[in-house]
Design brief:
The chain has about 140 residues and is an alpha+beta fold. It contains 4 helices and 6 strands. It folds into 2 domains: about 5-50, Roll (Ubiquitin-like (UB roll)); about 55-135, Translation Initiation Factor IF3 (2-Layer Sandwich), CATH 3.30.110. About 40% of the residues lie in helices and about 30% in strands. Strands 3-4-6-5 form a 4-stranded mixed beta sheet, with helices on one face. It has a two-stranded antiparallel sheet with strand order 1-2.
Length: about 140
Amino acid sequence: MPTSEALSLARTAGMDLVEVSPQESPPVCRIMDYGKFKYTQKKKQKQSHAVKVDLKEVRLRPKTDDNDRMIKVNHALEFLDKGHKVQFTMLFKGRERFNMEFAMSKFREIIAAIGEKGKVIRAPLSEGKRMTMIIVPAKHTGP
C-alpha cells in the first residue's frame, strides 16, 4: 500500500502511522495510537527493571533465651525455604556491646542451626549498637 494512502487511512481513524521495522524491504508500518504505544512500552520497561528484594529481618538480643532463639531461627528457615534473604540483627543495650565475643558465639550457633539450607553472604558485622549478618538460600543442585 502506498504511504500516502496509509497516512490518509490513519488520519480518518484518528490514529498515527508508525514505522515498525524500517530494516525490512518494504518497511513495515502500522496504524496505531503512538502515545498509548509509548506509554505501554515505558511501563513494560519499568516492570522489567523493578527488582523486588525480599529481605526479611530477624531481631534478637544477646540475652534471648535458647528456645526463643530457635523459634526465630525456625522462622528464618521458613523464609529461606520461600527464597527470601534473611538478615539477623542483634541489638545491644548499655554494656552488652562490650562483650562482642558472646554475640559472635550466638551468631555461630545460628549459622550451625541453619546448616546447609542457607549461605552467609555477609558475616556478622558490628555497627555501633547492633550486629548484623545476612544469609541467602542455598542453591539446590538436585531435582
